[in-house]
Design a protein that fits this description.
Number of helices: 13
Distance between the termini: 22 Å
Largest sheet: 7 strands, parallel
Strand content: 15-25%
Bound molecules: nicotinamide-adenine-dinucleotide, 2'deoxy-thymidine-5'-diphospho-alpha-D-glucose
Shape: globular
Radius of gyration: 20 Å
Number of strands: 12
Helix content: 40-55%
CATH superfamily: NAD(P)-binding Rossmann-like Domain
Number of domains: 1
Structural class: alpha/beta
């Protein structure tokens, strides 16, 4: 069995669904179900005994100890985090709690579990920390993309908290020998993406005829990766990554925010034309994000060289699939927007939730 934290979030739920589509190894999914966790994402796994969901917090050491002793996972895949930069600007405390204290608590619980395993189990055990390219800070146009040895220069409360968690993970390898793996990935997009982040927000707002708010001049650059490619990269690193190593994951798809929004508008004009006019008419330039990083770019050659991983999707194929997913899942969007998704556990599982 593997333990996944934050498995009800955007990337975590894609990971759990993809994992169980390809393997019979069960998943113990621990998630606190903050606003970002959505149990409806697992409707396809209804009654599947391979998916064991636990509603709980990674800061709860007693719960972690109990789960690790009971299920004896061979690996921990740590996705749980507060993940939205804008929220971290308004309320950084939750980011320090979950991303720093939560990672610390999980590392300590994993270390205690690992120390009790047999020699063979200890050698095979992995703690995989899912992190972000934002820890490296911001690049100027033309600067080389982030490699695994790039200086840490986090600029937002979110990226600072993720950087702190990366440092803890590194220290638990060097000091205690815990077999850790760290991946630093670029911007993901795809199914189940909460519509507070750029791509899903633009899709759902355009469909509703609402303004499409672009921060600043819209020329900030991100490197976009289809979420299922991130999941396949994590599986590759878990299977073949060397303990203590860091692997950057990216899509080789640098785009300005304007290019992203233009691409979404063009796809919606094709797939769901609006009689009121082209979707681009809804674009609105708004006040910039404080401390807005100008450019991220990932050099993903190490993971390709060592583990043979490359993304399967181009931006064009991935964004088309994503727009189509949102068109096909408007009920999911409505329940997220109305807040009804938060009642799903109780409605679906009743008293057992
Ligand atoms: P998300 O916000 O969609 O999901 C986070 C999940 O963690 C939610 O289900 C939430 O309920 C859960 N959670 C939050 N606090 C918790 C706690 N204290 N205990 C247990 N569960 C808790 O995030 P995401 O976009 O899926 O990101 C997942 C991971 O990947 C994060 O660590 C993030 O830093 C990293 N990452 C994200 C991206 C991206 O583009 N979204 C890119 C690179 C790395
Ligand atoms: O780089 C990886 C990171 O990508 C992850 O670690 C984070 O968890 C994830 O949220 C994401 O962070 P960003 O800040 O890059 O993503 P976001 O979707 O919030 O914004 C993408 C770009 O779009 C960024 O330059 C800000 C801009 N933006 C965003 C929103 C929400 C807008 O112009 N308008 C908006 O309304």
């Amino acid at each position: 069995m593997i333990l996944v934290t934050g498995g009800a979030g955007f990337i975590g739920s894609n990971f759990v669904l993809d994992w169980l589509a390809q393997s019979d190894e069960p998943v113990l999914n621990l998630d606190a179900l903050t606003y970002a966790g959505n149990m409806e994402n697992f409707a396809a796994l209804d009654g599947d005994p391979r998916h064991v969901f636990v509603h709980g917090d990674i800061c709860d050491r007693a719960l972690l100890d109990r789960l690790l002793a009971e299920h004896r996972p061979r690996a921990v895949l740590h996705f749980a985090a507060e993940s939205h930069v804008d929220r971290s600007i308004h309320g950084p405390a939750a980011f320090v709690r979950t991303n720093v204290e939560g990672t610390f608590t999980l590392l300590e619980a994993a270390r205690a579990h690992w120390s009790r395993l047999s020699d063979a189990e200890r050698a095979a055990f992995r703690f995989h920390h899912v992190s972000t390219d934002e820890v490296y800070g911001s690049l100027e146009p033309g600067e080389p993309a982030f490699t695994e040895t790039h200086l840490y220069q986090p600029n937002s409360p979110y990226s600072a908290s993720k950087a702190a968690s990366d440092h803890l993970v590194r220290a638990w390898f060097h000091t205690y020998g815990l077999p850790v793996l760290t991946t630093n990935c670029s911007n993901n997009y795809g199914p189940f993406h909460f519509p507070e982040k750029l791509i899903p927000l633009m899709i759902v707002s355009a469909l509703a005829g609402k303004p499409l708010p672009i921060y600043g001049d819209g020329l900030n650059v991100r490197d976009w990766l289809y979420v299922k490619d991130h999941c396949s990269a994590i599986r590759a690193v878990l299977a073949g990554g060397r303990p203590g190593e860091v692997y950057n994951i990216g899509g080789w798809n640098e785009r300005t925010n304007r290019q992203i929004v233009d691409a979404i508008c063009a796809l919606l004009d094709e797939l769901r034309p609006d009689p009121a006019g082209a979707h681009r008419r809804l674009i609105k330039f708004v006040t910039d994000r404080p401390g807005h990083d100008r450019r991220y770019a990932i050099d993903a050659r190490k993971i390709e060289r060592e583990l043979g991983w490359r993304p399967a999707e181009s931006f064009e194929t991935g964004i088309r699939k994503t727009v189509q997913w949102y068109l096909d899942h408007q009920g999911w969007v409505e329940r997220v927007q109305s807040g009804a998704y938060r009642d799903w556990l109780a409605q679906h599982y009743g008293a057992a939730a």
